[in-house]
Design a protein that fits this description.
Elements lengths: L5 E5 L6 H12 L3 E3 H9 L3 H7 L1 H16 L5 E3 L8 H10 E7 L2 H7 L12 H18 L2 E4 L4 H14 L2
The protein binds adenosine-5'-diphosphate, shikimate-3-phosphate and magnesium ion.
The site of adenosine-5'-diphosphate has 15 residues, from helix 1 and helix 8.
Pathway: Metabolic intermediate biosynthesis; chorismate biosynthesis; chorismate from D-erythrose 4-phosphate and phosphoenolpyruvate: step 5/7
Catalytic activity: shikimate + ATP = 3-phosphoshikimate + ADP + H(+)
InterPro entries: P-loop_NTPase (IPR027417), Shikimate/glucono_kinase (IPR031322), Shikimate_kinase/TSH1 (IPR000623)
Length: 168
C-alpha cells in the first residue's frame, strides 16, 4: 500500500480502534490521530459537552474533523464508533485513505470496556448489542477491508501489517 495513503480504522465503541491504531502507527512508523481528540481540539469542548448540546452538534464536529484528517498523508486514524452515521465522512476519508473495519463481538466489548464512561454506552451493556445490530451493515458497507479482533492484540497487529503489505 502506498505510504502516502491514510489508514482509517472504523468499528464499534470499544472494539480497539484507539489502542490498536496507536500500536499499528508505531509499528509502521506513521503518525497516529484519534478522531475524538481532534474533535475536542478543534471545537474546544469535550465529547460529553458536545453531546450535551445535541448529537447533531457532535456529528457536525465529527465531519469537520474528518475533513482535517483526510487532508493529511500517510497517517493512521482511529475514528469514533459513529463515524458511519454520516456517509459523508466515509466519502471524505476514501479520497485519501483505505478504510479498515475492526470487527469485535459485542460479548468481548462488554467484557472489558467500562461502558459508563462512554456517552453512547452509558445506558448499559444492552446498548452495545443494540448498536452492533444497528451498525454492522453500515460498517461492512463502508469498509475496504475487514479485520476480526477476536485474538491477542499482537496477532491482530500482525494481520493488519500483512494485509497492508499485500494491498497494491
Ligand atoms: N484483542 C484484544 N485483546 C484484549 N483487549 C483488547 C483487545 N482489543 C481491544 N482491547 C481492549 O478494549 C478496550 C477498548 O479499546 P479502545 O482502543 O479504547 O476502543 P475504541 O477506540 O474502539 O473505542 C481497551 O481496554 C483495549 O485494551
Ligand atoms: O459510537 C459512537 O457514536 C461514538 C463513539 C465514541 O468513540 P469510540 O468509538 O472511540 O468510543 C465517540 O466518538 C462518541 O462518544 C460517539
Ligand atoms: Mg477510541
Amino acid at each position: 500500500m502506498n505510504d502516502k495513503r491514510n489508514i482509517i480504522i472504523i468499528g464499534m465503541p470499544g472494539c480497539g480502534k484507539s489502542t490498536l491504531g496507536k500500536a499499528l502507527a508505531s509499528r509502521l512508523n506513521r503518525s497516529f490521530y484519534d478522531a475524538d481528540d481532534v474533535i475536542v481540539w478543534q471545537e474546544g469542548k469535550s465529547i460529553p459537552e458536545l453531546f450535551a448540546i445535541s448529537e447533531d452538534c457532535f456529528r457536525d464536529a465529527e465531519v469537520r474533523a474528518s475533513r482535517f484528517l483526510a487532508s493529511k498523508e500517510g497517517i493512521v486514524v482511529a475514528c469514533g464508533g459513529g463515524v458511519i452515521k454520516r456517509p459523508e465522512n466515509i466519502s471524505i476519508f476514501k479520497k485519501t485513505g483505505t478504510v479498515f473495519f475492526l470487527d469485535r463481538s459485542p460479548e468481548d466489548i462488554v467484557s472489558d470496556v467500562d461502558v459508563s464512561v462512554r456517552p453512547l454506552l452509558k445506558d448499559g451493556r444492552q446498548k452495545v448489542y443494540d448498536l452492533y445490530e444497528e451498525r454492522i451493515g453500515l460498517y461492512r458497507e463502508a469498509a475496504d477491508y475487514c479485520i476480526r479482533n477476536d485474538k491477542p492484540m499482537e496477532s491482530v497487529l500482525d494481520e493488519f501489517e500483512t494485509l497492508i503489505g499485500n494491498i497494491p
